[in-house]
Every structure is written in C-alpha cells, then in structure tokens.
TrEMBL record:
Coiled-coil segments: none
Organism in which the protein naturally occurs: Symmachiella macrocystis
Pfam families cross-referenced by the UniProt entry: Aldedh
Domain Aldehyde dehydrogenase: residue ranges: 40-294
Protein name: Aldehyde-alcohol dehydrogenase
Keywords linked to the UniProt accession: NAD, Oxidoreductase
Origin: domain of life: Bacteria
GO MF annotation list: acetaldehyde dehydrogenase (acetylating) activity
PANTHER family assigned: ALDEHYDE DEHYDROGENASE-RELATED
Length: 473
C-alpha cells in the first residue's frame, strides 16, 4: 500500500512539474518534439497522427478557437515574422512580407464547412464533410510561413493535422512559425502537434512523406519538379503548379487603371506571387499611352539597350536541346532598384516595377521569372493579344488578366485561356479577395483542378441515410 501511495505521489509531482513548466520537459522539448518540430518523418507523422486522434475527440468549436489563434498570431507578430522570413530567404520586400501575414485573417475557416440534406418519401439522407487525417504538405520558399499558416487554417478547420516539409531555403521561418502556432494552440485548447514540421528538409524527406503510410493526402505548393513528384505519388495529391500570367490591354481599357493594376499585382513582393502579372500584350493604338501611364504609379521604363543588358543577366541560353532559358536564381525577388543598379541605372525612390517594350522572343515573355520587370509586347488588336497570351501562358491554366470595357473580349479571353483565375479590370490579387470579391488562399491547385483551396478542399464526403423515418412533412 505504501509503495502504491508513493508511486501515485510521484506521478502527481511529475504532472504538476510539467504544468508549472508550460508543458515542457526539462530537456527543452515539448513531449516528443520541439513544439511540433521533428528530426525525422516517422516521428513527425506519428505526432501528427496522435494530434489528429485528439482533435477528432474535440467539438468543432475548438477548431474555431484554433483558427482564431493562428490568425491572431500572424496579425500580431507580422512585422517580426515577416522580417525573419526576408532575412532568411533574401527575396521579396519587407512591407509585403508583413502584409502577407496580416492578410491571413482573410483565409476562411470552419464557416466553409457545410451539411447537405435530402428529405423524401424514403427518409432522410445527410452528407457531411469529414477530415482525411494527416496531410503531407510541401511549402515554397517564396511564401514560406504565409503558405504554412494558410494551409494550417484550411486543413485544421477541416479536422485534419499536417506534417510539413518546407523549402530548405525557408525552413527556419517555417519551423519558428510552427513552434509559435503550436504553442498558441496548446495554450488555448491543450492540443498538441496539430502542425508538425521537418527541421532539416530534403528531397528525401519529401519523398518519405509522399510514401508514408500514415499520410492520407498530399498538398504541394512549389516548383515544377516537386509538383511532378507529388503527382507521381500513389496518394491523392492537391498540387499548386506553375503559372506565367499574361495581361491583355485593348483599345477600350481604362489606361490609368490598367497601369495602376499591372504595378499593384506585378510588383507585389517583387513579383514572387504565382498569380502576379508577368507579361503584357497591349494593342497598338493605346500602347504608347499605356507605357506613359506607368511612371505615375511607380513604374520605371527601360530602353531597348537596358532591357538587353538585364535579359543577359537574368537568363542563360537554353542548354541540352531545351527550348527554355535558364533563370538566374540570384535575381529572383530582388528589388527593382537592385536590378536597375546591375545595369548601371539609378531609378527614383519609390520605384516598384521596371518595364519596357520587347518582342515576344525575349525570354522575359515565355518564362515565369519572378522579378519586378514586366515586358510589354505590341499586338495588332485584342484577338491577337489573346492569341499571344494563350501561347505564352503555356496552358498552365493558372491566371490571366484583361483590361477592357468590351464584354465580348472578356468572354473570348475567358473561354480561350480557361485559367483557374481570370481577372477583368483589376490587379491579379483581386482574384484572391484582395480588392475583389472572394476568399484568400496561398495554394491554388491548377494541375489537379481543386482551384483556390479552402477547408472543403481537405475533406471527404460521408453520407448517412436513415430509411423511412425523420421525414416530418
């Protein structure tokens, strides 16, 4: 009896010690990991699996709390976390890194879940939207923490947990974000490891996640290589693939609005957004007027010689029989002033975007280059512009933009391009609820067809039928 009492007393003391230490053990780790950060895929998936079981026992109201925790954290700590991301990755703009975290509040949560019911002579059938379980997630370097936070909201709102393999160049901020998210969730609900992450991610750890028996679904936001790898997996994959969004401007457009919109979308975070304006096809009759309007909104025009210099720095010629130029990754996401300085040009303070006239053979036109330089190509008329836009979007079916007052031109381009996002008379960002109607997500699944992801994207349908009862009419 004495031994039993002593054992009980020891257990109680250990529990109290844990509570007094915020749930942390004396070696600095939180249970089986460092607040969701793990060294191996097996450990991360196992922890996320335990987290899913615990979450499944909680009411949906707890998911509401969790979503709010993530949104409040991103908003309150946006400046610090945005600065950390820029310091680690070295790409983009600080003001826009901060803004990308502040707008996480626009990502939808549990309110997107729904219940469908059919009532008839033979009773009542209800269809509800259930979680998959543990979701494997790959995040990009371009928006490391915003993508993780956005996906965490959508996936947890749907009742899932996740294990993340971040891009190696953005792993530090992703891991720090995961730690902070998990702490906030634990303090609000007592739940652990709803977001797990690999501290030292590699291609090998990504492949382990793709193949792991404990992972039920894959979601990838990244470049063509990792997108293809995910789609080759035996698991269902939700893949946000590449894009090269074109802009068509016709003779009926509001020229000042078109110029302002091109800079708003194309300059955001130095053109790192996959939806960002990458090339402009403008009709001959308003071409020069459009170029003249750009400086009023933060644009700086390069001449032909300067564009040629920049092109030679930004791209290497195609190799090994490929028809694609090789992008200079060192210039991706750099400020417009930095690109200008490389070619001996001093631009005015406040310059957001470089631009200039090219022909369609310039590699800035067909390549998704993610730099704050946008090429402008003359076209005969709107139909010619739409033809060029379709050719250089490469059938990615990602994003396209048109500026026109002619409804027929909108209709024709919408049908021809068949893109997931199609924006008329506004910046590309309007397609994600930023200045236009709709909701925000940092994962736009184009190759696999889910489109702009939401909590419903990460659920599966379950039907429950009650035969011959509860039809009360």
């Amino acid at each position: 009896m004495q031994a039993t009492e002593q054992a009980i007393r020891q257990v109680v003391q250990e529990v109290l010690a844990q509570l007094g230490n915020g749930g942390r053990s004396t070696n600095g780790t939180h249970r089986n990991g460092d607040w969701g950060v793990f060294q191996t895929v097996d450990d991360a998936v196992a922890a996320a699996g335990d987290g899913f079981k615990a979450l499944s026992q909680r009411p949906v109201s707890d998911r509401v709390k969790i979503v709010q925790c993530i949104k409040q954290l991103c908003t309150a700590q946006a400046e610090e976390l945005g600065r950390l991301e820029l310091e680690e990755t070295g790409i983009g703009r600080l003001d826009h890194k901060i803004q990308k975290l502040q707008i996480i509040e626009l990502v939808p949560g549990v309110e997107f879940l729904k219940c469908d019911a059919l009532s008839g002579d033979h009773g009542l059938t209800v269809t509800e939207y259930a979680p998959f379980g543990v979701i494997g997630k790959i995040t990009p370097v371009t928006h490391s923490l915003p993508t993780l936070a956005s996906n965490a909201i959508s996936m947890i709102a749907g009742g899932n947990t996740l294990v993340c393999n971040p891009h190696p160049a953005g792993r530090l901020i992703a891991c720090e974000g995961a730690r902070r998210i998990n702490r906030a969730i634990y303090e609000a609900t007592g739940l652990e490891n709803l977001v797990t992450i690999i501290e030292n991610p590699t291609i090998e750890t990504a492949n382990e996640i793709f193949a792991h028996r404990g992972v039920r679904l894959i979601c990838v936001t990244g470049g063509p290589f990792v997108a293809r790898a995910a789609m080759a997996s035996s698991k269902r994959a939700i893949v946000a693939g590449p894009g090269n969004p074109p802009v068509v401007v016709d003779e009926t457009a509001d020229i000042d609005n078109a110029a302002r919109s091109i800079i708003t979308g194309g300059a955001f975070d130095n053109n790192l957004l996959c939806i960002g304006e990458k090339e402009v096809f403008a009709v001959e009759s308003i071409f020069d007027e459009l170029l003249s309007a750009m400086p009023r909104h933060g644009g700086y025009q390069l001449n032909c010689q300067q564009i040629d210099q920049l092109t030679k720095l930004a791209f290497d010629p195609p190799k090994d029989g490929s028809d694609h130029h090789t992008l200079n990754r060192d210039l991706v996401g750099k400020d417009a002033s930095v690109l200008a300085e490389l070619i001996g040009v001093q631009v005015p303070a406040g310059t957001d975007l470089l631009y200039g006239e090219t022909d369609e053979s310039n590699p800035f036109v067909p390549e998704e280059q993610m730099m704050p330089f946008v090429p402008f190509v003359r076209c005969r008329n709107a139909m010619h512009g739409i033809e060029l836009a379709k050719e250089h979007e490469h059938n990615f079916r990602h994003t396209s933009i048109i500026h026109t007052r002619e409804v027929r031109n909108m209709t024709t381009m919408g049908r021809e391009m068949d893109t997931t996002l199609f924006v008329k008379n506004g910046p590309s960002s309007a397609g994600l609820g930023l200045g236009g109607e709709g909701y925000l997500s940092f994962s736009i699944a184009t190759p696999t067809g889910e489109g702009i992801t939401s909590p419903l994207t990460f659920t599966r349908q379950r039907r429950c039928a009650l035969v011959d009862d509860l039809r009360i009419i």
